[in-house]
Amino acid sequence: MQAIKLGKRWIGKEHEPYIIAELSGNHDQDLNLAKRMVEAAAAAGAHAIKLQTYTADSMTLDVQSKGFVIEETDSLWHGESLHKLYQKASTPYEWHQELFALANTLGLDAFSSPFDEAAVDFLDGLNVPCFKIASFELTDLPLIRKAASKGKPLIMSTGMASLSEIEQAVSTAKQAGCEQIILLKCTSTYPAEPSNTNLHTIPHMRDAFGCMVGLSDHTAGVGASVAAVALGAPVIEKHFVLDRSAGRVDAAFSLEPAELKALVVETKRAWQAMGQVVYGGSAAEEKAKQYRRSIYVSRDMQAGEAFDASNLKIVRPAFGLAPKHWDVVQGKQAKTALKKGTPLSWELID
């Protein structure tokens, strides 16, 4: 699978995991707060920030009918109308250019998830390096076709999509001319439980679609993301907030700055640790071999004295004969007088 150039960085198995900090609606429609979030994401070592580009009217209808109000009692947004929720969580279009420019000056890539075709054109006009399709939009094939037609890499979260729905999304993108596709395993619950995350889907999806597969992680902490990297995920997306206790719209399943820094560090360590199939020790371990055990003379001996457990011992370090020769040397005789602490060698045996 060929690496993909995304903004300033390459994504692929030969490159460290690409960490995306999703601002979502955690900026609480406060531009200064959004800027501080971008700065904090850069300071934590993230590689990109991501916005969401929509208006309440482009997402839903302003009605109170059944289905337009969140009824699930276990939802973070129980009782909210969809329209009011999206009004509260949306990122004003006029912020995008300023936030993207700030991110770029701090060394971050910056892009967004468009939620309608007009948003694709808007983001393309800002020269984003890629487009991200959210999991709930994976079945919006016209939206995927539009984003894929722009000649840029496409990242798509799969959420609750079936194999056939993912296949339709990937085929639609390819038919529109996009070959640089990254899929993200995702569990579309907020927050997501580790037991519902099913990371073994990552290598299966990679084999099924011939695409790189990362993780859009809605679980608490960084454990699921680190495990995903061990399974080959080259991209990790996590929601980000400056202070979870402030209760922003997605705060419950977002990382704070210190946690985001830990995510960057630990996913890189996991990627570095995967390495290759190696036996016999690495080059770095070579010096440590001297501290294995070997056979040593454990008391002073006279020439001609027979070797046995009273005068030999298997100890560290490893400059004598290997322990596997213990039975062979029993009863053999010393060629010369030997001092305690002498490493036994074949030359000393008569």
Description of the molecule:
The protein is about 30% helix and about 15% strand. It is an alpha/beta fold and about 350 residues long. The protein has an eight-stranded parallel sheet. Strands 1-2 form a two-stranded antiparallel sheet. The protein has two domains: about 5-55 and about 90-275, Alpha-Beta Barrel (TIM Barrel); about 285-350, Type Iii Antifreeze Protein Isoform Hplc 12.
Assembly level = single chain
Q: Would you count the extended β strands for me? A: 12
Note the run of SSEs as H and E: EEEHEHHHEHEHEHEHEHEHEEH
CATH class category name of the largest domain:
Alpha Beta
| Widest sheet: strand ordering | 5-4-3-10-9-8-7-6
Query: Radius of gyration, rounded?
Result: 30 Å
**Main pleated-sheet profile:** 8 strands, parallel
Q: What is the beta-strand fraction?
A: 15-25%
Instruction: Using the alpha-carbon principal axes, give the shape.
Output: elongated
Keywords: Transferase
InterPro entries: AFP_Neu5c_C_sf, Aldolase_TIM, PseI-like, PseI/NeuA/B-like_N, Pseudaminic_synth_PseI, SAF, SAF_AFP_Neu5Ac, SAF_PseI/NeuA/NeuB
EC number: 2.5.1.97
GO molecular function: transferase activity
